[in-house]
Design goal:
The complex is a heterotrimer of chains A (about 290), B (about 400) and C (about 350).
Chain A lengths: L4 H32 L6 H17 L4 H24 L7 H23 L15 E4 L2 E4 H23 L1 H11 L1 H6 L4 H27 L5 H16 L4 H21 L4 H15 L12
Helix pairs in contact in A: 1-5, 1-8, 1-9, 1-10, 2-3, 2-4, 2-8, 2-9, 3-8, 5-6, 5-8, 9-10, 9-11, 10-11
Chain B lengths: L1 H16 L10 E7 L6 H18 L1 E2 L2 E9 L4 H14 L4 E4 L3 H14 L3 E3 L14 E3 L5 H14 L1 H4 L2 E7 L2 H16 L3 E2 L5 E3 L7 H9 L4 E5 L5 H10 L7 E4 L5 H7 L6 E5 L8 H14 L5 H20 L4 H8 L3 E4 L2 E5 L6 E2 L2 E8 L9 E9 L1 H4 L4
Helix pairs in contact in B: 2-12, 3-4, 5-7, 12-13
Chain C lengths: L7 H32 L3 H26 L8 H17 L6 H23 L4 H21 L1 H4 L12 E4 L2 E5 L3 H23 L2 H11 L1 H6 L4 H27 L9 H14 L6 H19 L3 H15 L3 H16 L11
Antiparallel strand pairs in C: 1-2
Helix pairs in contact in C: 2-7, 2-10, 2-11, 2-12, 3-4, 3-10, 4-10, 7-10, 8-10, 11-12, 11-14, 12-14
Classes of the chains: A mainly alpha (about 290), B alpha/beta (about 400), C mainly alpha (about 350).
């Protein structure tokens, strides 16, 4: 098995796909932290919400591609509401409170998901041409996974454009460095916070709806992805976008290869990695992050 | 004074309006600890529905109405014990019926002697249950060793399956191990080709199945024996389907996928071979009667696990009736050797080890013919096994 | 003022005035707890109350960690699990009929042995990083327990664990299998742990912990060895958690990995929050509420977790001191009404 080129190409691509998904979710978390200094433990639930919205939209007959556009916007709206009602009042308090708060939010949202959609497995129907398996030089690989990679790249390009080239992005970058100056300049920080949270949630929602057809939709999907995302953030360094990108693919690779070679302990390797970085390199691998 | 009088008066009137307890017979209470949340919720729901339907059909035991008290143990053994104690000590049930997980079943069974009531499980598959306690019985879902036998026989009987080599993938916990070990053991005796006798483990929290799909594909086998849990196997199959793997291999599922998951999964789920006690494809009047009744009551595709739980519940109800009393010792005596002719034939509780001997069917998931349940997928019966064939011998 | 020129009786009467209400409430509570088994004759209720006491102890230990030292742990139940499994394994495989006190010491000792190096590593960080580390280590423990099937029974867990007798020397008080006996034993241990912990928290040591919780940087500026104190707070919390684990095994006679999985960790966190952070006794109420919810509300609806999550959110937003804070508030009001000066100003 080891010497088989088909296996290695497939595995390599699998690493990329998982890394891409982790990146989408982790970047959202990172943006929220970078600008609002809030660690959103409920982020996984918002990812799941994206998947569930996608499931319902498609089940109601909407075209899958439209669903990919609309579901994340719905999640973003939910995010903004959450920010306004729950996060904002606690912004002045010590971070422990926001951790506990978003933890309660996660429990609440997960319970709500179960209530509305039930415990059973949901499948999102995708257009037939997407679920085919295509052959690259004789190596079979699901077309849908390529689609995920494409979406990830597109989203990252749009995000980069937003942050580097637009006024909003500039305000966000400034806000993540020196929030006080931004208010002095007359920009309403409240809107920036809401926007950042909404954007972060939207990214999680995108992750959810494109992961849905792949991993299927079930209430615990958020929690399962969340811990991997935290590992990404720790390794990449909270607040460092470049670090998160590298870390996402690193974790994706470790997790995938872990399941290939040492199944039982794959996640343990991931946890150990996180623990080592947290204890000895709290600024992340690139040393650019800022961890409490 | 006036206030006091008016209060007294209203109380008196209220007490007249309260309906007096009619002289109805006191119901027979049966406790049903079941997993209704979490990953195995569908299994729990199917079981619970089967039990509810049995109570509805049976109506009364010894002329007394049946009262089911259903408690959710969340799939956690320590909560299972707490709920069992609540049912026995607080609610005063005469018997416990149900559970979806072996772990919870074992925990309650460990307390059975102390609880002192009969406990009949409808979904526990672990071989540890044979003769575990005089109060504990098993009826319903096939046990791991029975499943292995049914699959092995099915493989040997089919020329197509016989020649395949099987990659064994198991959920990394007690049931997954016992399921795969039972099969591998038997397969090696019967000369069925196993690719990896040390079987591959899948952690319980796997989200992305692609590493496993790639591994199976790289092994270049043409068959797979899955000991993945019922809610999990459809996920694996879905991802394998995207890789085009399902066209190349035949999957035999030690953990039977639930009908609900098959329906949701659609075409990708076709071609899975699995053994169970019942499928709505069974074409006997008794089977059809059950399937129609289930559909009418729950408006869902009649599931195997629902029928198995139904049978288990009926066995218990009938045993209490046969015992003619709620005395645990008498019920236990009635349960030993109890038989029931149900939707899939005659089921018998062996007095030797308190576990059932049952007929079984080997099925393969196919596109369903037009049917009254709106089902797209059917577990088509490809072989029938008698209780003697299924075993275990007594 | 009165105290200054008074004789002995004046001092006592002013003490009585200041604390009389409080201490009479303690006495009442003790009386209720002792009389409980004779009022609640149903075995199920007795065991439920015992379970609430045990989880209350665990939640209290988390309060020491979170409410006093300011360190958040998402998997604190792991230390209860380690204590429970140690005893479970010991009792199952030991050939002799073990002494209760020996096994108690063993369970607690093993927990301390494991918590020390882990804690030493963890206290180098704080805040979110610390919380993540508790998850990492918690998941490692969980995986080990799961994988070591031959010893721990894996996910089936261990059941039918032998029940030791409670004895002091040769005088046998009863078996842990007896609901009333185990209740009193648990009550005894829990009260002792509570009193010891309260003493520790009210000492200068406790004050240091609280200063670390408020602002780590400043605490280090005034010369406090922050890491050492965090470690000590951690060890206290884990030790108490281990005690609760041992009591758990005595009560249930079985252990399983679900008692130390992420949802169990979350459950104990919610118990502590509900009860009230930084109160020590609040978590007992929180445990009672949570188990009540798990038991009774879950019978009515399987969606009771929605309420729990909502409760956490509302508590953090409006009532961070939890139910205990509310009760304290009411007691203070009562004390003022009855004319006592200021009541007792200490934070409990």
């Amino acid at each position: 098995m080891q010497g088989d080129i088909v296996f290695w190409v497939q595995t390599g691509l699998n690493c990329l796909v998982l890394g891409g998904l982790l990146l989408l979710i982790a970047i959202g978390l990172n943006i929220i932290y970078g600008i609002s200094r809030v660690i959103n433990i409920a982020h996984g639930s918002l990812y799941a919400l994206g998947a569930y919205f996608g499931y319902t939209l498609v089940a109601l007959g909407l075209n899958f591609f439209f669903a990919i556009l609309i579901a994340p916007i719905m999640v973003a709206v939910v995010g903004v509401i959450i920010e306004r009602i729950i996060i904002q009042p606690t912004r002045e308090r010590p971070m422990i409170y926001s951790l506990i708060l978003t933890y309660g939010l996660m429990v609440f949202l997960d319970g709500l998901l179960k209530y509305v959609w039930g415990d059973q497995l949901r499948f999102i129907e995708i257009p037939a041409f997407l679920s085919k398996s295509i052959s690259l030089a004789g190596i079979p690989y699901p077309f849908y996974r390529f689609f995920i990679l494409v979406v990830t790249v597109v989203v990252m390009i749009c995000l980069a454009f937003l942050i580097e080239k637009t006024k909003l992005g500039m305000a966000m970058r400034a806000a993540s460095s020196i929030p006080e100056m931004v208010s002095v300049l007359g920009i309403n920080m409240r809107y920036i916070h809401m926007g950042a949270f909404g954007l972060g949630c939207m990214l999680a929602g995108i992750g959810g709806i494109i992961a849905g057809p792949l991993f299927m939709v079930y209430p615990m999907m958020g929690g399962e992805m969340l811990i991997s995302c935290f590992v990404v953030l720790v390794i990449g360094g909270l607040g460092s976008l470049k670090g998160v990108t590298i870390a996402a693919f690193l974790v994706g690779a470790v997790q995938t290869l872990g399941f290939v070679f040492i199944t039982d302990f794959a996640m343990v390797v991931v946890y150990v990695m996180m623990a080592i970085i947290l204890i000895f390199m709290p600024r992340g691998i690139l040393g650019e992050g800022k961890f409490e | 004074m006036k206030k006091g009088l008016s209060i007294l008066l209203s109380l008196a009137i209220a007490s007249l309006l309260v309906p007096r307890q009619a002289q109805t017979k006191e119901p027979i209470k049966i406790g049903v600890p079941m997993t209704l949340v979490g990953i195995a919720a569908q299994v729990g729901i199917d079981n619970r529905n089967g039990i509810l339907l049995a109570a509805k059909h049976k109506k009364t035991i010894m002329g007394r109405p049946i009262k089911l008290i259903i408690e959710d143990e969340e799939g956690k053994p320590e909560i299972g014990i707490r709920k069992a104690e609540k049912l026995v000590y607080k609610d005063g049930v005469v018997a416990l019926l149900g559970v979806a997980f072996s772990g919870v079943g074992l925990a309650i069974a460990g307390e059975a002697d102390r609880l002192g009531v009969p406990f009949l499980t409808t979904n526990v598959m672990t071989p540890k249950f044979y003769g575990i306690s005089k109060y504990v019985f098993r009826c319903g879902q096939l046990a791991d060793d029975q499943v292995a036998v049914a699959h092995a026989m099915g493989i040997l009987a089919s020329p197509d399956l016989r020649k395949r080599t099987y990659y064994v993938l198991a959920d990394d916990y007690a049931w997954g191990h016992s399921c795969s070990e039972a099969f591998i053991d038997l397969a090696q005796k019967k000369d069925i080709k196993i690719y990896n006798p040390k079987y591959d483990n899948a952690a319980l929290n796997v989200v992305d199945w692609s590493p496993f799909v790639s591994k199976v594909a790289a092994a270049k086998v043409d068959g797979m024996y899955s000991c993945l849990r019922s809610p999990i196997i459809p996920r694996f199959v879905e991802q394998a389907h995207k890789f085009g793997l399902m066209k190349k291999i035949k999957v035999i599922a030690g953990g039977s996928p639930s009908e609900a998951a098959l329906e949701a999964g659609g075409e990708a789920q076709i071609g899975i071979v699995t053994a169970c006690a019942w499928s709505w494809d069974i074409d006997t009047p008794a089977s059809k009667k059950f399937a129609d009744a289930y559909w009418k009551e729950f408006k869902a595709v009649p599931p195997s696990q629902g029928c198995q739980a139904y049978v288990g519940a009926m066995v218990l109800f009938n045993a209490i009736e046969k015992a003619g009393s709620t005395d645990p010792e008498k019920i236990i005596k009635a349960l030993k050797g109890a038989t029931y002719d149900g939707p899939y034939g005659r089921v018998r509780i062996s007095p030797k080890d308190n576990c059932m001997r049952t007929p079984a069917v080997l099925t393969e998931t196919q596109l369903a013919p037009p049917n009254p349940y709106g089902a797209k997928i059917v577990k088509k019966v490809i072989a029938r096994l008698t209780p003697e064939q299924v075993g275990p011998p007594e | 003022m009165n105290k200054m020129n008074s004789s002995g009786s004046g001092k006592y009467s002013s003490w009585l005035k200041k604390n009389g209400l409080r201490y009479s409430m303690y006495l009442l509570l003790l009386l209720i707890l002792v009389m409980l088994p004779f009022v609640l004759t149903n075995r199920f209720y007795m065991r439920l109350v015992t379970e609430i006491l045990i989880y209350g102890l665990l939640a209290m230990s988390l309060d020491v960690l979170l409410g006093y030292t300011g360190l958040l742990s998402f998997m604190h139940a792991a230390y209860m699990g380690i204590g429970a499994y140690t005893i479970g394994i010991f009792l199952t495989y030991a050939n002799t009929s073990p002494s209760l006190w020996l096994s108690l010491a063993l369970g607690v000792g093993v927990v301390m042995l494991i918590a020390l190096p882990v804690g030493w590593l963890q206290v180098r960080t704080g805040g979110f990083a610390f919380a993540l580390l508790t998850i990492a280590f918690g998941m490692m423990y969980y995986t080990i327990v799961w994988k070591a099937r031959n010893i721990t029974g894996g996910d089936d867990g261990m059941f039918g664990i032998p029940r030791p007798k409670i004895a002091i020397g040769n005088w046998v008080l009863g078996s842990t299998g007896d609901p009333i006996v185990i209740y009193f034993f648990t009550l005894f241990i829990v009260i002792i742990c509570f009193l010891i912990t309260r003493r520790i928290i009210r000492s200068p040591f406790g004050a240091v912990l609280e200063s670390i919780r408020e602002n780590e940087e400043r605490a280090s500026f005034i010369g406090i060895n922050v890491r050492r104190f965090k470690l000590q707070g951690w060890m206290l919390a884990c030790t108490l958690g281990g005690v609760s684990g041992v009591l758990f095994t005595y009560l249930k006679g079985s252990v399983s990995p679900t008692m130390m999985d992420p949802s169990a960790g979350g459950a104990v966190l919610m118990m502590t929050l509900l009860g009230g952070l930084g109160t020590l006794w609040g978590p007992f109420i929180g445990a009672g509420l949570f188990i009540f919810g798990q038991d009774y509300i879950s019978t009515m609806t399987e969606h009771w977790m929605i309420f729990m999550g909502l409760a956490v959110i509302l508590l953090v937003l409006f009532m961070p001191k939890g139910i205990a804070g509310l009760i304290e508030h009411i007691i203070k009001k009562m004390e003022r009404k009855v004319g006592y000066k200021n009541g007792n100003n200490f934070k409990h």
